[in-house]
Amino acid sequence: MAGLYFHIPFCKRACAYCDFYKEIGTRRMQPLLEAMHRELDERKDYLRGEEVRTRYFGGGTPSLCSPAEIRALLLHAGRLFDCSHAEETTLEANPDDLNEKYLCELREAGIDRLSIGIQSLNDDCLKLMNRRHNASQAVRAVANARKAGFDNITVDLIFGVPGFGGNKLLATIDGILSLGVEHISAYHLTIEPNTFFGREMSRGHFAPIAEEQSEEEFLTVHRLLTRAGYEHYEISNFARPGFRARHNASYWHGVRYLGIGPAAHSFDGEERHWNIASTQEYIDGRPAECEHLTERDRYNEFLMTRLRTSEGIPLGELTRLFGPERTERLLRETRQSVHAHIINKQDGHLAIPPEHFLISDLIIENLFET
Hints:
The chain is an alpha/beta fold. It is 40% helix and 21% strand.
């Protein structure tokens, strides 16, 4: 099985926290789409005949594309790859793009899962983050999606925003739970240098919340969502039973995937490829860059991606892929953490309990092979 990713880099405005590659405005949409169709043809052998089980439109703001443009990319991919058993086709969307007509046409185009960037249901918080929708538009977008027949909806939530913890965060969580969506992605605000928040922080006008508050808000999100019946199955992801994000699992489980578009990444099992993070240079045909992964690279990546999930590391698979010596060493290195219940060891797996996911990066880095 394999995954297919399409990166649509255009946005109407830049969110204050966003460090993803993007371009403001859509004036280059048509040449960009033509270049993406060209790249599909050029890389038709990349997946080595494996079935494409998941397709994902990310960005940027893919909901700035028309349903006809989305459909054309899916049909083209279907002529080059075996997509006949696709299980999930996701499109990321901004709430204010999602009127009923657009959503019905998206369904007809082949989209069966929506990822709606709500982020907060507090209008002041949305203004601070420079989002282009308000809370009522977010609620209406989910209602419109239901009317259009979407029964697999995920929404994004950002917590850890200075000034919007406590009761304000509780109100947003309650509001999101009332929407009854199948999946929630909850991200702690990260302040990156090349963002509005990052520049404001460098001037002393903005600061992240304290570590204690970060932990408190993380545990609040974890507790309330799991009590509501969502499974905390990956650091930032919560799902109703049967509604885990299948495409994202490609990244966490070493499945081949092909990324189409500027700044898109691909993985063929041995090498990682990535396109230039420039719309114009991508349109001009600049080739992808490539990195061959050594066995140590693949081992470290295996630890990093698997320990992000609630299942953790299957020790049998670790031994099969990397040999018994590495498994024995990992068991020695994690003995203290297991004893302290920071890592669980049971049923042939090593896993970080979801309530400790907030410190998972530190745990994982200490296990890397150098």
